[in-house]
Specification:
Helix content is 31%, strand content 30%. By secondary structure, the chain is α/β, with parallel strands linked by helices. It is globular and about 55 Å long.
């Protein structure tokens, strides 16, 4: 029987609430948090005693930890990449440790979790090492995510791909903010987009996205950029994609309209369902929501900019 994998994330105690929200995205079954800042008061409130184990009193009050558990059929590498990218996008310094799981195991054996899968009406996501497979008439997107997030297995990626399939037009110019493995931009190119630009603050993601674009023969139309999209990207686009966390969508959406053509569509995913209304209320100041899709605890929105947005 396969064992569950425990992931331990260390962050500054002041960031524990935001880190916990992100961890919940990767472990919908629940997390637990170690935070010793208010140890004495919490023990007094709960147990009504003032005698605390000396080892607990020695705990570092400036650090806090999130523990989450992955089911046996969930890839640890995908989860670590997801967590690292989401935490980094929020500016949260962190370290991630896999307990009871040797690093070489999850780095080298993660391929067992990744098999060809259909997404939407036209795509089949295929691991780069598969040679004999039946695409069933669909377009094959070959992907090797390495340590970047994006195999197409996570609900947020699937929702974004399906919404992209609906709103993208042949020849569209596409911008993917927080591109990860490059899967969204590459999928757009394989299904009719004219060009795609992927931008990410993680250098590993940018390198991986370029490699995957070459793997699919679209590197001549795919541009991967390292850094902030507001500083590194020029021009306007027909379709803008953002499969990132709720807080990042709220923050980045302030700058998105100036990269959109007047009739462009903005697709947002990576939003856990209990933040959906908050995100919608925030982005609605600059955008009109034209469609929303809730599935598996996740929300995906499609929007157009309001005439007054700039």
């Amino acid at each position: 029987m396969k064992n569950w994998t425990e992931i331990k994330i260390a962050v500054a105690a002041s960031e524990i609430d935001r880190a916990g929200d992100i961890a919940n995205m990767a472990a919908p079954g629940g997390i637990y948090i170690e935070d010793y800042r208010n140890l004495e008061q919490e023990v007094s409130d709960i147990a009504h005693i003032d005698l605390i184990d000396e080892e607990l009193l020695k705990k570092d009050r400036d650090k806090a930890f999130v523990h989450l558990y992955l089911e046996p059929d969930v890839s640890p590498a995908e989860a670590v990449a997801f967590l690292s990218e989401r935490l980094s996008s929020e500016g949260i310094e962190h370290s991630i440790e896999l307990l009871d799981c040797a690093e070489e195991d999850w780095r080298n054996n993660w391929k067992q979790y990744f098999t060809p899968r259909e997404v939407g009406k036209n795509l089949m996501i295929v691991p780069s090492w598969y040679e004999n497979y039946d695409t069933q008439g669909k377009t094959a997107l070959h992907i090797d995510p390495g340590l970047a997030f994006g195999t197409g297995s996570h609900e947020t990626t699937r929702l974004c791909l399906e919404m992209c399939e609906k709103y993208m037009k042949p020849g569209d110019k596409v911008l993917d903010v927080g591109c990860g493995s490059g899967i969204l931009g590459i999928a757009a190119l394989l299904t009719g987009a004219g060009s795609a630009t992927g931008v990410d603050i993680d250098e590993t993601a940018v390198r991986t996205a370029r490699e995957n674009a070459a793997l699919n023969g679209v590197d001549d139309r795919f541009t991967a950029v390292h850094g902030s999209f507001t500083e590194k990207v020029d021009g306007v686009f027909d379709l803008v994609l953002a499969n990132i966390v709720a807080d990042a969508i709220i923050f980045l959406s302030e700058g998105i309209p100036r990269f959109m053509k007047d009739d462009a569509v903005y697709i947002m995913s990576g939003i856990i369902d209990d933040r959906a209304e908050e995100v919608k209320a925030s982005v609605s100041r600059r955008f009109t929501i034209i469609e929303e899709h809730l599935d598996g605890g996740w929300a995906c929105f499609a929007a157009k900019k309001k005439p007054t947005a700039d």
